[in-house]
Amino acid sequence: MLDSIGGSSLSSLGYSNSGNGGENASTAEKLQQNNAEQERKAAAAVSRQAERSASRAEQLQKQAEQLESRGTNRVREAGLGSRLDITV
Asked: From start to end residue, where is composition biased (Low complexity) (predicted)?
C-alpha cells in the first residue's frame, strides 16, 4: 500500500492501511493520480519554457553575428578612408 504521497503520510491525513482498506486505497489512488497529473503539467510548462529559451538564444546569436558583421564592415570602411584622400 502507498505509505507516502508528496511527503505526507496517509496516516497524517487521517487514513491508515488497516480497517476500511477499499476506501483508503481509492483515496490514495486519487491522490497519486492528482500528483501525477500535476507533475505532467509542470513538466509540460518547463518544456515550453525551455523551447522559448532556446529560441531566444538563437535569436540573440543571430543578432550578435549581425552586429559583429556590421562592425567588421565599418572597420574595413574606416580603413579605406585612411588610405584615400576623399576631401571635397
From this structure: 1-18, 57-66
DSSP string across 3-22: -EETTEEGGGGT--SSSSHH
Contact 53, 29 (CB under 8 A): no
Residue numbers in the chain where pLDDT is lower than 70: 1-22, 74-88
Whole-model pTM: value is 0.49
pLDDT in tens, 51-74: 999 999 999 999 999 988 887 776
d(CA 77, CA 64): 20
Q: Which three cell numbers mark 14?
A: 487521517
| Contact by Cβ (8 Å): 7, 30 | no
